[in-house]
Amino acid sequence: MEVLPALSCHYLAFSSRRRLRSLNTNCKIVRFQAFCSLVSNQNGTTKREYKPGFVDNILMSFFRKKMTEEVGWDSEKVGYDGLIEVVNRLMMERRSNLQIEQSAVRILNSLFPPLILVFFKILIAPMGEGKLASMMAARATAWSCQWLMGASSVNSIDLPDGSSCSSGVFVERCKYLEESKCVGICINTCKLPTQTFFMDYMGIPLYMEPKFSDYSCQFNFGVLPPPRSSDSALREPCLEVCPAANRRKELNKSTTI
User: Fold this and answer.
1) Cα separation of 235 and 148, whole Å?
2) For the Beta-carotene isomerase D27-like C-terminal domain, which residue ranges apply (predicted)?
3) Domain contains 4
């Protein structure tokens, strides 16, 4: 769940005003990377690995607190493993995908002080034809969510009007998906609720494109998602390593014996 992506948006408002004059043309491409180091894989290749710090631990604790309040249960495990267990509990207790999505949206909404989102949607979102808010959201996501998703960077994307803008975020290998090993968790607790939250509560269109073959994900702020009936990510089968899928397989085997 790409939660906390806009916690710092309102702090960026003043520094971003100087860019308003250039928003009528193509936005400049800006690379954003932080607190990452290169590590070697077993096959000899290298990748960037995000090293969580003190602020990240605060963000994770705050998010976990809000999630446990919604679920009504907390894991005995500490850290990221405990967070994933709470997410799994959310998946098990809700009766439908819609209920899971609605719970995730409520969690996202609970992360913000009252009226902050209202003011952002009214005052910031319309500026520069929405490009300012989209760029702010991209930078806030890359800065505040790497503890959840792993190494991420701001990149340039194509907008529906034919221009390009640095309002994208590329997640190299999503930790949330890699640790949960579940397409359902990715779709129902992250992709769909995050898209809904940004559009409904912040006035920012967002289209997320998870790639399940390599666990990467592309955030496209300022781009409306396609209809759910034509979104290819929603038609992806379970991963072979999915714990829930494997439990279903074992259950089916036991019932046929």
Assistant:
1) 24
2) 147-228
3) no
Q: Determine the Cα–Cα distance for residues 97 and 101; give it in Å rounded to an integer.
A: 6
Q: Which residues, including other chains, have CB under 8 Å from residue 64's CB and lie 6 or more apart?
A: 74, 82, 83, 86
User: Would you say 63 and 71 are in contact if contact means Cβ atoms under 8 Å apart?
Assistant: no
**Is residue 64 in some structural domain?**
yes
pTM of the model: 0.81
| Domain membership of residue 171 as a residue range | 29-256
Residue partners of 48: CB distance under 8 A and separation at least 6:
33, 36, 37, 38, 39, 151, 172
Amino acid, single-letter form, for residue 219 = F
Overall average pLDDT of the 146-167 stretch: 96
Comparing 39 with 246, the larger pLDDT belongs to 246
Contact call for residues 143 and 8 (beta carbons, < 8 A): yes
Tally of structural domains, the chain: 1
Domain-located, residue 221: yes
Q: Give the model's confidence band at 16: pLDDT under 50 very low, under 70 low, under 90 confident, else very high.
A: very low
Checking phi first, is residue 198 left (phi over 0); if not, alpha (psi -120 to 50) or beta? alpha
Written as one string, the DSSP assignment of 23-87 is TTSPPPP-----SEEEEE-TTS-EEEEE---HHHHHHHHHHHHHHHHHHT---SS-HHHHHHHHH
CB neighbour burial string for 127-152, b if at least 16 within 10 angstroms, e if fewer = bbebbbbbbbbbbbbbbbbbbbbbbb
95-124 tens-digit pLDDT: 899 999 999 999 999 999 989 999 999 999
Q: Which two tokens stand for residue 39?
A: 């590590």
